[in-house]
């Protein structure tokens, strides 16, 4: 038997055994009895803070075995009203507001006036029965022992009413089940009373601790306030005494306070901008500890704040100019990707080299004028959809086809290695830069685009240049119908495509896509008839051949991932060749490297 773990409000855990047909409301009831809490005051939620529907069974709840649930206070009151819609076998329904604490028998009694017949008694040997969530509650005894709240009902629900014939054996089974549940509740009632007393005692102790803490805090604040007033009074008397003796009273202002702070040891504090070295403003390293201090470094005890402020301002302005140049260079699509190459080869960019690259790149991106793309020959054809009879005549797939073989495992391992490489060697590049790079690669790979519009049982095929704006697709459709003011919509897999000045690559429609054409003002049959009158008809085979010829100029697209090369594959500086004494060593090390893959008996000793 499976079970779940329920975390109580007092942070304790209880184990509740479950079966696939156990209601989640029964799990909450048993957990509350074990922990000493009222069932009507709590709900259940998962550890991901998702509230659970208590009317579901454990099988339909989607919870895994040995799941962990948490009890939370219920937001609605105990006497909350629920809206019940009772449906007869004939299909008629009546709706009433009923208290959640009412039993099913009381619910039927309230609906008797609405339906005008006896719903709680037996009629022609048939007992009343209520069906909710594919569970039947039959007979007067079972209807009286189950309440709406015990079934987890809340809000608005639909309950079906039927009449069923119960044998004496079935009635005895229902009676035995109810007696067993009552015995279980009586056994848990003892644990409930004991746990409830423990909870009350714990709450009392916690309340006393909070009151004592608040009282001690108030007393401490009162003592500190009295001490502060006493010091102020003492200072006031000393000041009056000085004035009476003709002495100048001592003033404590901000200037003296700052002098006291400057007289403190300088190694006790440090500001990266204010305590910048006077000789070299760029001497600070971003990798150095913030509160480090070199005792051997000579520095004035009371430095000039104006000098430090000017040096810090100059350093900040230099960094701002550097960052602005790098940002502009990344936004410029015509600039060389030097930064990307250095990151891929070396793993990082030194600050000095970054400054040199930023100075070499243009400070501002060049103004790009929009290029007008001339429309190409659409070669529009319309054809009827052909029925695919491949699945009709196909033989049943053997079971060996679904077995995982060695080739499948190698392919899976290769894909996993590629995923790991993508995650571990990805460079820290801006998302906008990667998207712009992939857009440029798509523009270079996908020169032409084929768009097919599904209109009823026919398909309209059009040819486009990938750089053309998608608004020309709507213009073509409107130019071939009589009502030019009609509104059309294009959908791709239930996603609405808005035609605009963006090209087909920017809307992910290249190199080919099939859209569903619909009109709000004109019916699909009318649109199809008008298109067939103005556009040549063809077969799907000819349309596929024309599409293949148009897409022949395209090349495969390889996305830009921005990976960093591993340490062993990065560019390594070659040793200097000026030292002739090390030629033999280099030759010997190169020879040994070449012989590493040879067998041991073949290597030269």
List keywords for this structure.
15 helices, single chain, 605 residues, 5-stranded mixed beta sheet, Ubiquitin-like (UB roll), alpha+beta, UBX1_UBXN9
User: Helix amount, in percent?
Assistant: 40-55%
Query: How many structural domains?
Result: 4
Task: State the name of the first-level CATH class of the largest domain.
Answer: Alpha Beta
Average pLDDT figure:
77
Major sheet: order of its strands? 14-13-15-11-12-10-16
Low-confidence stretches: 252-303, 363-368
The biggest beta sheet is recorded as:
7 strands, mixed
- Write down the Rg: 41 Å
What is the structure about, briefly put?
This is TUG ubiquitin-like domain-containing protein. The chain is an alpha+beta fold and 605 residues long.
Could you characterize the architecture of this molecule?
The chain is of the alpha+beta class. It has 4 domains: 2-73, Phosphatidylinositol 3-kinase Catalytic Subunit, Chain A, domain 1 (Ubiquitin-like (UB roll)); 81-166, Phosphatidylinositol 3-kinase Catalytic Subunit, Chain A, domain 1 (Ubiquitin-like (UB roll), Roll); 269-294 and 302-369, no CATH class; 377-388 and 407-571, Phosphatidylinositol 3-kinase Catalytic Subunit, Chain A, domain 1 (Ubiquitin-like (UB roll)). The chain has 15 helices and 16 strands. A 7-stranded mixed β-sheet has the order 14-13-15-11-12-10-16, sandwiched between helices. Strands 6-5-9-7-8 form a 5-stranded mixed β-sheet. The two termini are 70 Å apart. 13% of the residues are buried. The model is unreliable at 252-303 and 363-368 (pLDDT under 50).
